[in-house]
Design brief:
- The complex is a heterodimer.
- By secondary structure, chain A is an all-alpha fold.
- Chain A is 70% helix and 2% strand.
- Chain A is built from twelve helices and two strands.
- In chain A, strand 1 and strand 2 form a beta hairpin.
- Helix content of chain B is 18%, strand content 22%.
- Chain B has two helices and three strands.
- In chain B, strands 2-1-3 form a three-stranded antiparallel beta sheet, covered by helices on one side.
- In chain B, strand 1 and strand 2 form a beta hairpin.
- Classes of the chains: A mainly alpha, B alpha+beta.
- Chains A and B meet through helix 4, helix 5, helix 7 and helix 12 of A and strand 2 and helix 1 of B.
- The structure holds fe (ii) ion (2 copies).
């Protein structure tokens, strides 16, 4: 390809981005745009898949049949979200096999929040309320992302997420209005999940060179700090309704900015957990590897069956 | 990891509507692809009919060829109703 046609392609690409139109799978795109998307979408997919584990831990111990059915449906949704996102990444030429290998080898990242343990039933409530709540803020913004298949996956996911957050809030509500022990269990869950949830939005804008380029390409539509602020503002009000206290002494309303100000995030802890120092990093990967190994015979059987069927078909035709 | 072939999934959400592409999945054969599509894409009654097509069987136009491929339609404005000069008041 000569220099001229590359710059024509680039101009077309820029035009589409400027016009708020979507880039589609077979379109020309800068290689870095493609790689950036693969990284973001596959990490997102891994997060959905690994995110099943903390809650899966409580399916067998859910307090009522209603809660159990709900939790099963939610965890099944997260598996679906992983699938939507893996297929979006595959449209960029990344193979499912490679993504799976990267997850299982520990090379790929997923949201650090899922390396924290679910110690009590209230954690299931806190995850739905806070973690899914934060995910929704991020995902609503991503519905406007510039890559078509990613945007469409986000729209589908957002439709399903709202029940995730509501069921979590409902659990917190019941506990908050329950016995003293139940209320303190809810408060304890909030205390443990609050800060890791704020970290889900990623580093501060000033420390995030990555996201500048993503914003230019309209892969990301709002900055990490903007999204985090939006989440804090809405969640503080919800905590008040529950009668629970956000574990941040610096939290206060700023009437000039019309936003809540909040305390400093412990980025050292974030880095420590990213690098494998969380309580559950090893357990999560171990569980994924075991699932892959134990499910291997099913995939082998499916392929063997299909091969046999094909042989029989051609045998009969001959 | 043993990889199963890729299938594209199309769903009719309501009677009277077209099947629309919704996403893709991996499956060994058509029957299995249909079941997986049901579990993945219609958990909340989003469909009344599903088509699955093996992705490798789809022929698609290439972006690089767009200019020449779609060019023949470019200068045929007479294919549009607004090309014709007729009295407005008749609401033709
Ligand atoms: Fe999800
Ligand atoms: Fe969710």
């Amino acid at each position: 390809m000569d220099q001229n046609s590359v710059s024509n392609d680039q101009a077309r690409f820029d035009q589409i981005i400027d016009a708020e139109e979507k880039i589609e799978p077979r379109d020309w795109m800068p290689e870095k745009y493609r790689l950036n998307l693969i990284r973001q979408i596959s990490q997102h997919a891994h997060s959905e898949v690994v995110g099943q584990l903390p809650e899966g831990n409580w399916i067998g111990r859910a307090p009522t049949l209603r809660r159990k059915a709900t939790l099963l449906a939610k965890v099944q949704d997260e598996a679906g979200h992983g699938l939507y996102l893996y297929s979006a990444a595959e449209t960029l030429g990344e193979s499912r096999e490679k993504m799976m290998d990267d997850l299982l080898s520990g090379k790929a990242k997923y949201a650090t929040i899922f390396n924290y343990p679910t110690l009590t039933w209230a954690d299931v409530g806190a995850i739905g309320w806070l973690v899914d709540g934060a995910a929704i803020v991020n995902q609503i913004s991503l519905c406007q992302t510039s890559y078509g298949p990613y945007a469409r996956a986000m729209v589908r996911i957002c439709k399903e997420e709202s029940f995730h957050m509501r069921q979590g809030f409902e659990i917190m509500q019941v506990l908050s209005n329950g016995s003293h022990a139940q209320k303190s269990m809810a408060q304890d869950a909030l205390n443990r999940w609050w800060w890791p949830t704020l970290m889900m939005f990623g580093p501060h804008d000033s420390d995030s060179a990555h996201s500048q380029q993503s914003m230019k390409w309209k892969i990301k539509r709002q900055s990490n700090d903007e999204l985090r602020q939006k989440f804090v503002d809405q969640t503080v009000e919800q905590a008040k309704h529950l009668g629970l206290t956000i574990p941040d002494e610096d939290l206060k309303w700023n009437s000039e900015r019309s936003h809540y100000e909040f305390g400093a995030i412990d980025w050292d802890e974030f880095q420590r957990v990213v690098k494998g120092g969380g309580l559950c990093n090893r357990g999560r990967l171990h569980a994924r590897r075991r699932a892959d190994e134990e499910g291997g015979w099913v995939r082998d059987a499916l392929i063997a069956y299909e091969e046999k069927r094909c042989k029989k078909d051609t045998g009969e035709a001959a | 990891m043993n990889l199963l072939p890729l299938w594209e999934v199309f769903i009719r959400t309501r009677r009277g509507l077209d099947h629309k592409h919704i996403g893709s999945l991996h499956a060994a054969d058509g029957a299995q692809a249909l079941q997986a599509a049901r579990d993945t894409y219609t958990r909340r009654q989003e469909g009344v009919s599903i088509w699955v097509v093996e992705a490798s069987k789809i022929h698609a136009s290439q972006f690089e060829d767009n200019a020449s491929f779609f060019e023949p339609a470019e200068d045929k404005v007479y294919r549009h109703p607004t090309f014709y000069d007729v009295p407005d008041e008749l609401n033709l």
